[in-house]
Amino acid sequence: MRLQRRRLLFLFLRSSSSGLLPLKNALRSASSFAGITAAESDAELDGDFDGTFTADPSNWTRRIRSLCSAQGVDEALHLLDRLRLRGYRPDSLCLASLLHSLCDAGRFAEAHDRLILAVASGWVPDDRTINALVSRLLAAGSPDSTLRALTHLSAAKPAFALSLANYNRLVHQLCTLSRPSDALKIFLEMKRRGYRPNAVSYTTLIDGFARAGDLEAARRLYDEMRERGVAPNSLTYSSLLKGVLRRRMVEEGRKMMELLWVKMESANKDEEEEDGSVKNAAFANLVDALCREGFFQELFRLAEDAPTKACVSPEFAYGQMIDSLCRVGKHHAASRIVYLMRKRGLKPSLVSFNNIVHGLSKQGEGGCLRAFQLLFEGARFGYAPPVSTYQTLVEGLCKIKHVEKARALADFMLGEDDDDDAARRTYNILLRALRLVGRPSEQLNVLVAMLRRRCRPDVVTLNTVVHGLCMAGNVDEALKILHDMLHGEFCAPDVVTFTTVIRGLLNAGRTEEAFDVLRVKMAESSCSPNTVTYNAVLCGLCKLGRVEQAMDILKEMTRKSVGYDQRTCAIVLDGLLRAGRVDDAKAFWEDVVWPSGIHDGFVYAAVLRGLCNLGRLDEACDFLYELADCGFSPGIVCYNIVIDRASKMNLKRQAYRLVAEMRRNGLRPDAVTWRILDKLHKRGEVGDRTLVHAVDPEKLSRPEFGLVAIENDGSSPEKYHRSAEQETLGKKK
């Protein structure tokens, strides 16, 4: 019987070898299937497991690799860790499978650590496997981690030789991070190991130094390249030209551009550069350098005749110009390239054209109008803006009060063959844009046009219209839409609809109608209020001064098991403090807010603002200090609230003490802080006279600094420093 259960257990394990269960869980599941208890399963794992492993270690290797191929890298690592305790040593393929699976999952940091751990444990793969793994690890874009792994590999295997391609990739990554000096060290190490750098090695390093502005180092590398017989290609010339343009050496740059065209033409005749990839990269590098350094006149001069000179495709050349101009924010200049292309009978790519339109839509009135014009011109060669570009342009047109153009754009997007979902999305974007600029009447007109088109509005459409009407104070129209939704004229309302209407009614002071919607109409629609709904009710009641009703709503939330959030606590505390009920606010803080841990900067600001408005500056300061002592960071806004109250009370000593306390907690005064202190000094020196010293805040506790001092870091105005004569006058008084 015992032997039969063992065979059953082995068959279950064999059938689940490609699953995703960890080893121990798989064994326990198999034990349960075979009728073996958990204790017997653990004894099986700890007792006979070693014998099974020593008999056939390749079985576990296959299982680890199968788990990796099935995307169960965690289970494979778990199994490997268990096997490692029993002396199992994975081979190169097993280790490679694990690292590749970690890289596929985006866990590059763990892959680096696993490789270092394997090397430290003596599991060093062969050179070919190491180069494949390093190539995969370089995809993470973290050269420091890869260098750390290479250091451990070199220490464990001094004869290890990294491939030239991996060296070049490592140099490129360091140059991309603006670290050409570190890249040069790798370059010298590569030569010390006997490698002969090729054109890619030199070009990458020259580009790194040129990008960093070190033209002399780039030229030395170029001269060394020629001396060693490595022929520079077009990309090498363009990389060196980038450094020349960065130094604003215009004449030399023009000469090098002529040499670049000659090099491209000669390479084209000799067929040295296959498929034009190097020439395209060189031209793109040159255009990008011209745009980044601001040589736009040279760029437009290049646009006139460069495509034929540079031996590149005109479509590629103009597309690269458009892309580089858009990268530096010159969308108007990019539109000029489009007109130049159309003049020559060329059609810009839809991606490049959309990049221009989308960028212009964010540049105010001039940009939006130009984008609107370009969009209709692009329709002639088949351009149709995607949803994101349409939304940006519609919002931009509404913000500059060109609602008619926004309506025309929506009509253009609708077309004749659009289905209801696409038309509804188009209308929703237009309604949202009108809501953002406060145009409820236009929203109603769009809703009527939508109904005439027989496009049925969904709940998002109606919620947008209702929200716009409530924001404009037109609650009656919002109630009419809600009535139609409740009686089946439109789709059924959801909790967002009811919350919006309740907020609008409370803002208008119509409390009874708001409670009717909350208690009656929501119940009739089988819609339960959530935290956001109750927050709207609490906020409206507190603004109307009905704190008792707000506390009843809070009890109702507790009774219905509706959770609080930070906004709930901030609203209640602000309402209690506005009503002058400080003791109730303290009780709510101690009994509800503090034990629940639901508090953040908004809650702290509500408490501090309420105490300061009541003139309880000392209590506000004590609350602020206690928060800092408990390990919570109140934030710069909270400090500014208390400093502003101290400033209005003309308490300079207290104000600067708060500034010093803020600095001790790692915060720096912002523009609001300095504006408050500026107003404090402009009110005149009445009452307490304060001396401001340029000292370290850490010295404030010393006895010789009885008056409050702040650190002068260059951002404080000179008017805060008082002369020695004023100090003497203050001491005499």
| CA-based shape | globular
Mean pLDDT: 81
Largest sheet: none
Helix percentage: over 70%
Descriptive keywords:
mainly alpha; 40 helices; 733 residues; disordered C terminus; disordered N terminus; 0% strand; globular
Overview of this structure, please?
With 733 residues, this protein is mainly alpha-helical. Helix content is 71%, strand content 0%. It contains 40 helices and no strands. Helix 7 (92-104) packs parallel to helix 9, helix 27 (459-471) packs antiparallel against helix 28 (475-486) and helix 27 runs parallel beside helix 29. The chain is globular, with a radius of gyration of 36 Å.
List the helices and strands and how they pair.
Blueprint: H1 2-15, H2 23-34, H3 38-46, H4 49-55, H5 57-69, H6 73-84, H7 92-104, H8 108-120, H9 127-137, H10 143-156, H11 164-176, H12 180-192, H13 199-211, H14 215-227, H15 234-246, H16 250-270, H17 277-293, H18 296-309, H19 314-327, H20 331-343, H21 350-360, H22 364-378, H23 387-399, H24 403-414, H25 420-436, H26 440-452, H27 459-471, H28 475-486, H29 495-507, H30 511-524, H31 531-543, H32 547-559, H33 566-578, H34 582-596, H35 601-613, H36 617-629, H37 636-648, H38 652-664, H39 671-682, H40 724-732
Helix pairs in contact: 1-2, 2-3, 5-6, 5-7, 7-8, 7-9, 8-10, 11-12, 11-13, 12-13, 13-14, 13-15, 14-15, 15-16, 15-17, 17-19, 18-19, 19-20, 19-21, 20-21, 21-22, 21-23, 23-24, 23-25, 24-25, 25-26, 25-27, 26-27, 27-28, 27-29, 28-29, 29-30, 29-31, 31-32, 31-33, 33-34, 33-35, 35-36, 35-37, 36-37, ...
